[in-house]
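User: Sulfate permease. Structure?
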Amino acid sequence: MRRWLEGYSRRDLIDDGLAGVITAILLIPQSLAYAMLANLPPQAGLYASMLPPILYAFLGTSRTLAVGPVAVAALLVASTLSGHGISDPAVALIYALILAFEVGVLLLLLGTFRAGKLMNFLSHPVLSGFTTGAALVIVVSQIKHLTGIPASGHTVPSTLAGLAAGWPQIQPLTVVLGSAAMASLWLAGAPLSRLLRHWRLPDRLVLVAGKSAPLVVVLAGTAAVALGHWDADHRVAVVGALDLGLPKPNIGFLTASQPWLDLLPSAALIALIGYVESVSVAKVLASRRRQRIDPDQELIALGAANLGAAFTGAMPVAGGFSRTVVNDTAGARTPLAGIITAFLVGLAALYLHGLFIHMPQAILAAIIVVAVLNLVDVKTLRQAWQYDRTDAAALLATLFGVVMLGVEQGLLLGLTLSLLLFIWRTGHPHIARVGRVPGTEHFRNIERHTVDTWPGLLLVRVDENLCFANAGPVEDFILEALTDAPDTRHVILIASAVNAIDVSALEMLQGLIKNLRTQGITLHLTEVKGPVMDRLERIGLPDRLSPGRVFLHTHQAVQALTDPAAPCPGSSHCPDRVRT
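Assistant: Predicted structure:
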């Protein structure tokens, strides 16, 4: 907090105030919508937008990250509740509080051990496939609210089956209301912005107009339902009466008899996805301002925010992508904007809860659908398909798993496939025979370039760390290359791309040295990196190479082995030269 309070100015306060107001206008209907998505009472979403962002403001390192309920976390909560067969709102809320508490504890533990970089193991294609699949699941899950058809299910097929079975119960007015809301929200996005900019209105006025749309649509829909008595006469589902007010501290869930250990895997998944989403958007926006994000401190800040959510009756929270972008675009300069947003949400809970009585669920569903459609990431799929089909396969497998099997199973499938592909790639490294580009000291693949080679001398470059997965293929490549060049007397292994050698690869090298020696062939190493060389020297590998040597450069090695007049660095004698 001290970082952004130093030098705080009146101009900062004005910008933070405006950004806080704009974000609150967007957040209030979103909070209710995401609580509905999670199958929780509406207050669980509003309360998640009060204390958690305040705690983050004091502990976080991003100046613009908007913390609160998010769509993917809400879907994961809903999936967890469905998996445990929970339908009672009171019991569902207790489960959500336990999840928020466990998420907070997990994030705090990871932050304490400075494990922020561990989250990098979630690859971008897997994350893209997960978010795209989750967006499709969310959209399908909201059809029941947009049509009035009673249906349930935590996968797309099961939900569609329920919708098909309940099709005769469709409510025409609900369909009209939801469709009109989605159309209005879409028009209030890019089309309205283009129109207002065409009229040369100030950018901030354009932003306010666009981001006020959800609140305007909610108010208009609520007024129509109340004046037309649509909830009573046409069975339009509404939120209903709520006893809100400000959240009260609650520790009763700590003694609940719910299955804490069974909920832990779901909490870990929510923590992982929430943290990755939060830090990703925070880093992008911070880089634009030349600011820095501390991943480990973010773990602590988000952990505290989730504990705050648990103790105030709220659902798990994270940094929302769309709200954070809105907060940043609105001109937020410090986390005070988030505090102002939380204050305004609190005022709404205190004085505007009467509006929720006739608030139609179809409009909240429309807000969810329009918001999550931005999560559908076709660009990454297209790029991955063009660049690397294996990454595209991981993306599609994750997407397919989330849609067909469920969010947890889908992400687990994607992570497993991504790990297997990583091992496969490591086990199939690029290995090349190289030669010298004429007139230079550069060495390139003989199959790609016109290069000089020498009879009796084999140069091999391995473009991967040496480990258990590829030790065998590397040895096989060298031995096979030797069968094509039976007059070889020296093998130079170029290690310019090798950053690590594990014990399995070390055993392979030691065995290769002995094997080649029995054939009258000497193995040499070149361009070995310092940290790798330090470990090789600790176990005495350079001495076991003798009469082979370790050279600093490949050019130096070739000179020493082909030019009788060249000195032999680091040795009182040189190995036998090869004939050029």
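Confidence is low (pLDDT under 50) at residues 569-577. The radius of gyration is 31 Å.
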